Structure formats: C-alpha cells, structure tokens
Amino acid sequence: MNFDFSKIKNKKILTVTLNPAIDKQWRLNNLSIGEVNRVLKVNNTAGGKGLNEARVLHQLKLDVTATGIIAGGNGTFLKSALDQEGIKHHFYELKNGETRICVNACGSSEGITEILEPGPTISKQDANKFLIFFKKLIRKFHLISFAGSLPKGLESNFYSKLIKICHEQKTIVFLDTSGEALIKNLNAKPAFVKPNVDEIRQLLKQETFTKQQAIVFAKKYVEKGIKNFVVSLGGDGALLIVKDAVYHAIPPKHRVVNTVGCGDTLVAGFIAAELLNVKPSQKILIATALATNASTTEKTAELNLKTLVNSWPKLSSNF
Fold first, then answer.
1. What kind and span of H or E run contains 180?
2. I need a labelling partner for 139 at 20 to 30 A (CA). Which of 66, 105, 230, 307 fits?
3. Residue 13: beta bridge partners?
4. Do the Cβ atoms of 91 and 75 come closer than 8 Å?
5. 316: which DSSP letter?
6. How do beta strands 63-71 and 88-89 pair?
7. Does residue 116 contact residue 39 with C-beta atoms inside 8 Å?
8. Which residues is 41 bridged to in the sheet?
9. Contacts of residue 121, Cβ cutoff 8 Å, sequence gap at least 6
C-alpha cells in the first residue's frame, strides 16, 4: 500500500490536451431550467482531461508538463491558472479563436448539468505546425498522455499521427478519449486506454453489456498491442485487462463529494504506477485508490493523501 513516488521524480511526463477549457464549477441550491438561477459559489480552473492528469501528478510531486492548443484571452487565463498551481506548461498558441469555457452546474438534488463550448477550429496549417511543434517538444519525455476530445478541424485519426511520432522516439503512450477519436485510434497501439461504461457501449454497439463482453472486446486489442486496457466502471471501480490476466479493483464504500475529474485521476494514478514499474495488479490498485480519494474532495482532481489508506480498493481476479 505504501508506494514511494519519489523514486520516479526524475521521469518526465507530458500530458496533451488538444481542446482544453476554462472549467467553471457553479454551486446552486437548485437548478431550474427557464428561470433565473443564482449561483452560490464559483470555482474557475484550467480544465481538460490532460490538465486534470497534470494536476494530480503535480500533487504527487512528479515532473509533469502540460501541453496542447490554446487561443485568445481564455488561453492566457488558462496559462495563468496553471502558473498559480505551479504546473509547468508549454502550449501551441493559435493566432485566432478562443479557448472554450465549460460550465459544470451542481444543484442540491438535480445532479450535475454540464454546458460545454466547442472551442476553436484548427486549420490544416495549424494542425501541421502542431505536429512539428510536438515532435520537437517530446524528445526529453519518458511518457506522453493524450487526453480529451479533438477540437474542430482535426481529423479523427489525428491522435494516431501523434502516437506514431511517440513510437518513433520509443516513448510510452497513454490515450484517454472517446467517440470517433477513440475508435479511429485504437489501432495506433497506445500502451494504455481507458474507456468508461458509456464508451464501452459505443465500442460494442449495444446499450447493455456484461463484464465478460467488455473483457472479450478488450482482449482483442491487448493481443494487437495495447498493453493495458482499463474499463472505468465509475462507482464500481475499474477493470484492467492485460495479456495474461484480468483484475477488478473495487473501491470501499465512501462519501462521494465530487466525481468530476475522477476518471482523469485514475489515468494519472496509472501513469505513476507505470513509471514505478510495479505489477499490473498493483497498477490498477494505485490508480483506483487515487480516483476514489479524489471523489471525496470538493475540487476537481484534488487529492487528500492523508486519507488515501481509507480509499484503498479490494482486488478481484476471478475471471
């Protein structure tokens, strides 16, 4: 249970968020559609899946840098917000457009309502310039994590182009995306993917599925070269499918405060575990423990390492 992350503080990690956002978290008593709603509390953060991963890795005191594509005044704010957190960054900046804003409205009984802007459209010229920028940037990194949606203008296989560059430089590659961006890039053979329940439904092309169906699907891609295929099950933990085994990390019962960013925390935990070079069973335990821990805190992708022992999951391998 006690893992020394200081052993890997010399390993350089790069998270890539091609469509980042300013995340606005609104706290309300109630959210009423078609009426005036007064927000009780606002929390603005530099958002996007890769930035959440970087936030978690920074809290673990690991050497992480965030990159991606930003634009306009919102992009400037995003960099400033990362500076305040002490998170290193090196972005490709567009001359036109505006980094998006995403609103997360939390009422007392309605659950969470999300309103997501699309973000800037990337021209072919900027797409090609980013590939050149990226190839130069990654030379010093041990692990690259691609996370989140693709902005408008980029082809659905754009991640494959970036993964190919990583493979040429023999860098470990993680991929956490959804929809066409996931479907079209699975064959690029990242070392890690993490579809959630909704994304597995889409991959299987069916509304319901069993754990066994998800495992059979994942094993096909493990055989093709995806070393770690994780299926995020939300409150039920996560499955890890590797070449010779399947593991299910089951979190303990706990009070859930905020689930936003928990999937990203799971990925960040797996990144740290991958660099620690521990056994697959330990990787999924570490990742699930951190994700569970993050769900007990108020801010997005926030850890309370003092209570991590209370977040430790059970492990099942009866498959």
1. helix 179-183
2. 230
3. 64, 143
4. yes
5. E
6. parallel
7. no
8. 27
9. 97, 151, 152, 153
Q: What is the mean pLDDT of residues 90-107?
A: 93
Cα 265 from Cα 49, distance rounded (Å): 9
Q: Would you say the C-alpha torsion 275, 45, 148, 302 has a positive or negative sign?
A: positive
Active site residues: 264
109-127 pLDDT, tens digit each: 667 788 999 899 999 999 9
Residue 97, SS3? coil
> Is residue 12 over pLDDT 80?
yes
Q: Which amino acid is at 5?
A: F
3-state helix, strand, coil in the chain (%, to 5): 40, 25, 35
How many C-beta neighbours within 10 Å does residue 77 have? 16
31 pLDDT above the threshold of 80: yes
Q: How many other CB atoms are found less than 10 A from the CB of residue 61?
A: 11
For residues 230-244, average pLDDT: 95
For the segment 229-249, the average pLDDT, to the nearest whole number, is: 96
Distance between CA atoms of residues 90 and 97, nearest Å: 18
Average pLDDT value over all residues in the chain: 94
H or E element at residue 215: helix 211-224
Structure tokens at 3: 């893992």
Alpha-carbon distance of 67 to 91, in angstroms, equals 5
Q: Can you list the positions of beta strands (E) in the chain?
A: 12-17, 21-27, 41-47, 63-71, 88-89, 92-94, 100-106, 112-116, 143-147, 172-176, 192-193, 228-232, 238-241, 246-250, 314-316
Look at residues 112, 118, 119 and name the one whose alpha carbon lies nearest to residue 75. Answer: 119
Q: Which two tokens stand for residue 126?
A: 């900027």
